[in-house]
Structure formats: structure tokens, C-alpha cells
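Problem 12. The chain below contains 287 residues. Write out its predicted structure in C-alpha cell notation.
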Amino acid sequence: MRIDRYNNSKAVVAANAKINLYLDVTGKRSDGYHELETVMHSVSLCDSVTLELKGAGIAVNCSDSLVPCDKSNTAFKAAEAFLFAVGKSNIGLQIDIEKHIPTQAGLGGGSADAAAVILGLNSLLDTRLSNGEMLALGAKIGADVPFCIMEGCAYCTGIGEIITALPTLTGYVVIAKGKDGVSTKAAYEKIDALQGINLKSVYDFFDSKPDISELKPYCRNIFEEICGIDDVFHIKSVMEEHGASCACMSGSGSAVYGIFRDNAAAQKCNDRLAKLYGFSRVYSLVS
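Solution.
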């Protein structure tokens, strides 16, 4: 993540979204958390998170009225956990989130904001937590937070906190979302009775730094198979018609991404989707 410090009390962090190139739920633990097998990749779509040391306590503002700004906000949780961990709970903090990552989309918007807070505060307060310490702190906030701290491309297992870095890919990404969102909680409730995809070759494939033209057989998402949202399947078909190397729903949905080698083809696909849906943009994969 890019961190711009303006002085000793203010920093702005670009919080990058993620897509799931592969996602399977492999089990459920006794504590209620789900075991995952996933390959995630950062994309250039990002929120802007401003951190300013001022006032008393932690306050959150967000440009999207659908995002709660109370203690349930992941950025709030991350700030509270970070300040407690470094012994600075008495510090006042203002968090302003300029939202560009759609909500209920499976793009890790809340996790990205939490990761931005952890990375930003580590820089702003010069607390010098190691990557390992920040990843462990992020895992307490949410399953995708550790990856959003690390970024790039990674194979993740456990609840998402066991991360193995993989070679990043190069390409253009069209991301589109229909009118319907998906509650993560509701999606996992549907998945509990199902068996996972369990493609045993997925790690070996991504570890070999595949050409994006070879991705299609491996881009799978178990949530796509149970979401039942018509827009998801239509968006995916449009992307494939325009030559996407692969197209798949991300996370628990409902955003769909298509990866293209050629920017012109990506733009042409986006032009069509933008006329049909409220959200469609072209981004790039982030190394």
C-alpha cells in the first residue's frame, strides 16, 4: 500500500482491493471460523484512508452512507487493536475513508481499510512492528486483512492467515457489479452444508507463474456456484464474449472480474458492461 505522510500527525493510505483467483471453503472449525484455500491478487481499485492524530478516542467517517462508522467498522477495530498492542490507547485518532471499493462485493473493501489503518499507524507512530506482527494483528480483525497488508499475489489457507507469496501476474482487470449485494454471513451459512471444490493442483499451478491465458480452468469460486444471482452469470458471460482469459466472482460476491491481456479488449468489455450495470471499471493487477 502507498502511504503518504504529510506531517507527524497525518497520513493518507491507498487501500487496494483484492480478487480471488481461486476460492474454496474446506471446513469449519469448532470456534465457528471457516477453513479456506484461496489464491488472492491485489488490484489497483482502492479506497483512500486518511489517518489524523487528534482529539480523543477513535472516530470514523466514511463517504459511503452504507458503511457503519461505529465500533463495528473494521477500520475502527484495527485502530483499537493496534493502539492497544503498542500501548498507545490514549491517543486520539480520526479516520476518514473515501470509499471506492463497492460494499458487499467480495473485493475485501473492509479488510483493505483495516490493513491501511495498521500499516498507516505503524508508519505514523514509528512503532516499527514487523510484518509478522502486523499480519498476526490483522488476522484478529478479519480473514482477508493479513493478505491486504501483504498484497501482491498469495496462496492463503487456515482462515486466510497462513500466507505463501506467489509470483504476481500482469494484466488488465474489468470489475463489474450488479444491483444485488451478498452478505458474507449469509453466504457462509449456505456453504456450510456443501463440500469444497478441492482442486489439488491449484497451488502448483499458481506457483509456476502461469500465463494469464492458462488461468481459466483454475479460476473457481465455490460461492459463485451457490450465490444464485442472475447478474453474476450475465456479467461473466459478457466478459467471456469479449475475450477475458478468465472471469469469476470474487470472494463471497457479488462483484465479478475478468482478466484481459489487452487493454483495448478490456475497455471494450467495460464499455458494454457500464451501459448495463451501475458499477463497471477497468483496473490493473498490482505487483
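Discussion. The radius of gyration is 18 Å. Students who got a different answer should revisit the alignment rule from Section 12.3.
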